[in-house]
Amino acid sequence: MRIPIAALIGLFFTSLYFIVAIFAPWIAPYGMAEIVSPDIWAPSSAEFLLGTDNLGRDLLSRMIYGGRTTIFIATAATILSFATGSILGFLAAVLGGWADQLMSRFVDLLMSIPSLIFALVVLSVVPVTVTVLIIVMGLLDSTRVYRLARAVAVDINVMDYVEAAKLRGEGRKWIIFREILPNALSPLVAEMGLRFIFMVLFVSTLSFLGLGVQPPQADWGGIVKENADGIVYGIGAALYPAVAIATLAISVNLVADWVLNRTTSLKGGRG
Amino acid sequence: MSEPLVKVRDLKIGATVYPPGEKPHDIEIVHGVSFELAPGKVLGLIGESGAGKSTIGLASMAYGRGGVKITGGEVWVNGRDILKSNLGDVRSLRGGEVTYVSQSAAASFNPAKQIMDQVTEASIRHGKFSKKDAEARAVELFRKLGLPDPENIGTRYPHQVSGGQLQRCMTALALCPEPDLVVFDEPTTALDVTTQIDVLMAIKEAIRDTGVAALYITHDLAVVAQVSDDILVLKMGDMVEYGSVDQIINDPQEDYTKALVSVRSIDHQEKVATSEPVLKVEHITARYKGTNFDVLHDVNVELHPGQTLAVVGESGSGKSTLARVITGLLPPRGGNVHFAGRDLSAALGGRSREDLRELQMIYQMADVAMNPRQTVGTIIGRPLEFYFGLKGAEKQKRILELLEEIEMGEGFIDRYPAELSGGQKQRVCIARALAAKPKLIICDEVTSALDPLVADGILKLLLDLQKVEDVAYLFITHDLATVKAIADSIAVMYQGKVVRYGGKTDVLSPPFDDYTDLLLSSVPEMKLGWLEEVIANRKMESAGN
Question: Which residues of B160-187 are buried (b: 16+ CB within 10 A; e: fewer)?
Answer without folding.
Answer: ebbbbbbbbbbbbbbbbbbbbbbbbbbb
